[in-house]
Amino acid sequence: MPDPLDFFYYPVRDFGLAMKGMIIGGMGVVHVFLAQFAIGGGMMMCWLQWRAWKHDDELARRFLDSFFQVLVLVSFVLGALTGVGMWLTAIQVSPRTIGKMVEEFHWIWATEWTFFCVEIVIGYTFYRCHRRLDDPTRMLLLAVYALASWASLFWINGILAWMLTPGGWSQTGSVWAGFFNPSFWPSLVYRTLVSLTLGGLVAIVVVHTIPGMSREDRGKLVNTCSLVLAPMAVMPLVGLWYLGTIPPDSREWVLGQSTAMTMALGGAIGASTLVGLYVVFGLLLGRLYVNAATATLLLVLAFAATGAGELVREGVRKPYTIRGSLYANSLTQADVDRMRKIGSVTRDPYPMPGKFPEPVLVTGAKVFRLQCSVCHTLDGANGLDHLTETWQPDQMRLNIAKLQYTKPFMPPFAGTAEEVEALVQYLLWRKAGQPQRWPIAAGQARLADIRRWLAAAGTHSPVRRTH
Ligand code: HEC
User: Fold this and answer.
1) Which CATH number fits the domain 20-317, given the four candidates 1.20.1630.10, 3.40.50.2300, 3.10.100.10, 3.30.420.100?
2) pLDDT per residue over 179-189, tens digit each?
């Protein structure tokens, strides 16, 4: 018989005013942007090499051998660094999610890293030797580089998409059902298009940095580079395809039910549409000359679109990190059920810094840390002090006891009535300015009500576990 209290508490990390989700999200956006540029940049280099080889396009060769190839290589070094940064932050913010991802997809990660190694070795070989190589060899190296970097996207994409749409894995636990999950293909196609777009836009900016090139030559190069942007015309369709594969409740949030999510999606669509219109009408049809400032602006818009897009993808997973298996605060359904009976922080071994006049306030602070701090701070981003500012104590008790109905993107409360009360006392004590004495006897009378509210809310999320 396992010890009923043997929940494993991971070490905790406090990021101050920044919400934990923001830390990982911020790192994620930079990483995705760099990594996708490295992939698109590789494809762009293939295209330039093809032009140089088959069309004797000396401008393309000059451009390829310029700062651009250095940039692509730098981006994959930075991509790798921020990739390590992702692991570092993820194991602090959401160790259990990361643990599950490694446990389920061990060999997929290994495969991804193998392709990544190929990418690094070939990229470096090209960088060192390209001036001494003939065209077919250069083409071969670049094609392998581009394919390997795209393949690493292929493998990681399956794992990322699985978190939102685990598909058949939820029933069978099959790795391949999880990997080729419902949003795998639209997400892969979409990310490939984004990569190409980033590769093209960065190239156009870089064209303007080559010293001593005539305006006419720059114009020609911009036109050559713009061709890889053409596929982005189908992005809206692929976006719709993606929306069609995600769970209906997630879709409803981005389509109006959650203001923040809807705004983020609107931002992503707006920014990509602007880039798209400029590319199609300005660059491809109009053959316009685009100057450095415009090109940079297009790139900034693309960065904004990437950021907003990733935010939506992270946001619509709530209240889960792995849909149906793991809530965002790293608790499973079984944990919630059990902790309702035995308490969630009963054995939390980590100290709670600060001075508390009553032990119940320490319990409240620990409940916040375990169950809420992944999405909330106290007085910073999405801060609870502010969100509960106008609430009466009983309103707090009720709304926390039925947390999953207060907002459906929050997980159910995973603790006893005493813990709801402790959390409420903690929030009230903060609201009162953290006085040195805190008489709490009055609160005890509410436990029976809280028990009733907890029972009425049940332990499940109204957000369906699978779809
Ligand atoms: C999965 C992320 C997540 C977790 C975990 C979470 N919340 Fe929230 N919560 C949110 C989001 C997002 C909002 C919406 C904020 C807004 O409307 O600006 C919210 C809103 C709230 C509000 C305001 C509700 C309203 O109607 O205005 C309160 C109070 C709150 N949360 C308390 C908690 C408490 C207490 C916990 C821990 C027991 C918790 N939350 C855990 C994501 C979460």
Assistant:
1) 1.20.1630.10
2) 999 999 999 99
